[in-house]
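Q: Hi! First time asking for a complex rather than a single chain. Here are the components, and I think there are two in total. Is that enough to go on?
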Amino acid sequence: MRSVPLKYNYEFSRVYKRGKFSTGRYLTVHCFRRPAGLKHNLTPIPADITRVGFCVNKKQLGAVGRNRARRLMRESYRLIEDGIPFGIDLIFTLRNLEEIPTFDEISKDMVSNLTRLGLLKNEV
RNA sequence: AGGCAGGCCGAGAUGAUCGCGGGCAUCAGAUGGGUAACACCCGAUGCAUGAGGAAAGUCCGGGCUCCACAGGACAAGGGUGCCGGAUAACGUCCGGUGAAGGCGACUUUAAGGAAAGUGCAACAGAAAAGAAAACCGCCCGCCGUUCUUCGGAGCGGAAGGUAAGGAUGAAAAGGCGAGGUAAGAGCUCACCGGCGGCAUGGAGACAUGCCGGCCUUGUAAACCCCACCCGGAGCAACGUCGUGGAAUGGCAUAACCGCUGUCCGCGGGCCAUGAGGAGACGGCUGGAAUGCUGUGGCAACACAGCAUCUGGAUAGAUGAUCAUCAUAUACAGAACCCGGCUUACCGACCUUGCCUGGCG
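A: Yes, that's all I need. Here is the structure of the assembled complex.
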């Protein structure tokens, strides 16, 4: 198990355009199963890693709020990381909400979304 | 009791479990990357450490980097504008002067020049910028007329005098009082204001006093004039490396393929070269640094000594859960770095500070 941040803009758009998604009450999850032999700048991307991105709309929250939301999502992801298969690109996006949800709400929503996409081997 | 001024702090604190960034130390290397081999990267463990007073707005001033000019002056454009000081510098800060406000402690200040010139001053008003103007009013004399107590009085008229009063206006040509006069007027005088000169004090802005002629509207946040300052762009700056592809040169061209058949030639191969897109690394944090003490200074600040090392991420590190403390937690996240300004903010604390009023 190894998770690595998703970096480049074109990789994000690939996940949005060609991947599957699931929307919950607080989060939207996009996932994309990388085909074998995919390269970035002629360097092959290892098959045994999962790449993750966390997004918050710049318009809905200030810098502090965005940081907080990202941290909550990252922490939730960390706890269920082991149950997720390799070779996948994931993007978690906070939905447009009035307030930042609590850790519990994000955590549960993340699990249910990933289950719906068939990405969780067994519920934690 | 009310107020004035200044300072200081602010992810609320503590504990437990799990987790993140870079740093240091140790370990593991018959296993990944890397090297000639080490180092190093990657991995594990431990240790300490890890956002702000505004990190924000990006409004000024610098450092740093590249480009331009490599000398000076002027013009254009922009900025600043009482005086002195502080500073690397500033439009900032400190101390003062003048003005305005407040009973006061204090506060505010968009403070150069209106006698270099130009423009503007709506409406109202007779007149709104020149040494002006007579709407009402006031007045001597004159003419007509009425009355008469024969002194004059009233009314009307033409020509004049008058800026004291009324009326207009944001503003009416110094203010106010006395003398003066037919009525008036800086016409004369005292005081006040302004202007000019002189003296004294001060480093200066200015202050005080005396003298003079009797006096010149406001607006420069209208143009403008004067003095001083300013080259441009920014860390996505800039520097180093830079697979492949393309370019140029060299070498090899047996076979095969392409340039529609044939021949020649060229390309596909290998090596080198200087640019260089993506990307990587550096720039990247030890600094006009912070704390304490001392000396100088009213102060801003400067100097000296001692001590300390205090974020450097790169899709972007400070988090999660639980428990306790008191009800509960504002504005808000470094992105090259400093000095300011401005704006946002739940609240906590300090000064044997100062002022006004009440009671004793």
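A: Residues 2 and 35 of chain A are 18 Å apart (CA to CA). Let me know if you'd like any chain examined more closely.
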